[in-house]
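Lab meeting prep.
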Amino acid sequence: MMSQDTKICNHCGFEGDISLFRKKENLCKSCHNKKRREYYSKNKEKENQKCKEYYINNKEKIQEVQKQWRKKNPGLWNARSARYRNAKLRATPKWANHAIIKDMYAKAASKGQHVDHIVPLKNGLVCGLHCEDNLQLLDPAENLSKGNSFNV
């Protein structure tokens, strides 16, 4: 006998807690996600067009939500931005530990510091890597005065 806090999935027969099911369906979340992926793969153009139209109709609202997220998560935003910039430069090696790098950016944001590349990514003498061993935390004034220089 089922308790009131459980449901049974109509698709796979899984019985579990209500939190593992969609609110208005008797489908567990994993079955729902599987069906959703199948639908998307068959209707990519239609779905992409729907997303585009939603963005056009709600552009200001979406941008405001993104702005609020960036304000609440400056460390994550800085890490994401740095990862993007350094991917364009092809400066991030495959073996770089992204979790440590993300933590450094979060720590820097909370302390009011900058994350600095010890060996610059772009320099006339040398090109460094975007990895945890080439990063350090510096005070903003010190980092900005250092610029893109590299002393041999």
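Slide two material, second protein:
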Amino acid sequence: MIFLAVQLITGILLSMFYSAEINSVFGTIYNISSEVYSGWLLKNSHANGASFFFFVVYLHMSRNIYFSSFLYPRQYLWLSGCLIWVLMIATAFLGYVLPWGQMSFWGAMVITSLLGAIPGIGNDILFLLWGGYSIDYITLFRFYSLHFLLPFIIVALTVTHIYMLHEKGSNNPTGISSCLDNIPMIPYYGVKDMFSLIVIFQIFLIFIILMPDKLGHSDNFILANPLVTPAHIVPEWYFLPLYAILRSVTNKLLGVMLIAFAILCIFFLPLFGRFFFY
């Protein structure tokens, strides 16, 4: 929740200075860092905040899988969380394109081209997404609009997710109801959560102040050029599991199907997990 708030606040402030005009967008990113008061802090916080957001969400998902929190009666809580995760992936991908660097452009080209492999409607979806026959200024405007819209949908789903959590309660390693052995949230859980928050924010500050570009790619500091393909097109680290699936096969359609299957497996854990996690 804290990192979602960080991304929302920094994103809204950055949108006041960002220009989606294809001829000036690359320079806008550097103007934000050099000309806008504390712009470097906003940009670094937003760029690195995405990685930290995914990191804590992956920890959260791993913990819930370990505790079998996707089983009845929390199956809908799990599904709402998975939907938030998918929207996070979409939002992060759209945001990665906005700086309009080499890696941004070619990452968008590779990933969106996968949609063209869908039989029958693939090319129509691709044309609708690109706004033409190639990635151009219309694509950048559409990605920017969607990147701005999706976080508010994530906020609405997060509120629903928390409501479901309070309805069914948290799980524990034993799977036994702990309703008879409750403790007050303050000071017990409050102190524990505050300690975790202090530790993760210390690491976060180290990244945004001392090594803000550590998690990025050097090719993204080069203006997007459709005529020059980078030697290695590598996504952000939080996309690497899906990227590894894509690289493991040579057929584009099969790659799309395997990625979709991998995501659906996470959604279907409440259905099949009860046979393996009891």
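Talking points for slide two:
The chain has one domain: 2-174+181-275.
Residues 212 and 250 are 35 Å apart (CA to CA).
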